[in-house]
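Most newcomers find our protein records easier to grasp once they have seen one. A record pairs a protein's sequence with a compact description of its fold. An example says more than a description, so a record of this kind follows:
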Amino acid sequence: MEKIEITTKFKRDGSLIPIEFLIDNVPVQVLDVGRQWESDDGKHILVMDFQGQTYHLFFQLQDLGWYLVRDIKPPAEPS
């Protein structure tokens, strides 16, 4: 996991919506928010950028930090 800077907004119901995050100081704009789930140590959110790349973001309760989980495989090349 890699700790990242992230911009989020809170909806009225208290849910978090990621807007943008930085990877190696390069901004990644979030196009769509997918599946979300809670674990004992935080909240997991899958997001997609404008190039169709999927990212696994994790909000850790222990340090209240955001992390990029690098377990998502890139899209398969067309045959």
